[in-house]
Hints:
Layout: H1 7-11, H2 19-67, H3 78-91
Amino acid sequence: xxxxxxxxxxxxxxxxxxxxxxxxxxxxxxxxxxxxxxxxxxxxxxxxxxxxxxxxxxxxxxxxxxxxxxxxxxxxxxxxxxxxxxxxxxxxxxxxxxxxxxxxxxxxx
Length: 109
């Protein structure tokens, strides 16, 4: 037992006085639980206000769509149009430039 030297031994507490440690652990538990409750309330409040804002934005978008007052996006610039044409030309199905070396019966020449 000589190897065990902690702060409580220097202050004057012995091994028989563990109630202070239990009290400190209990106090830490209460403080951590309180902080978790506060964080939970803050996160819940933020999510709730974010969902209300999202609901209002969706409602306004639906209302504009029904009334026909929707704004069209800006037209694509020439670089974007060039890239779209390039992609579209690459997506076309082309016949391969391969000469098949088979006879009529399906065997290779």
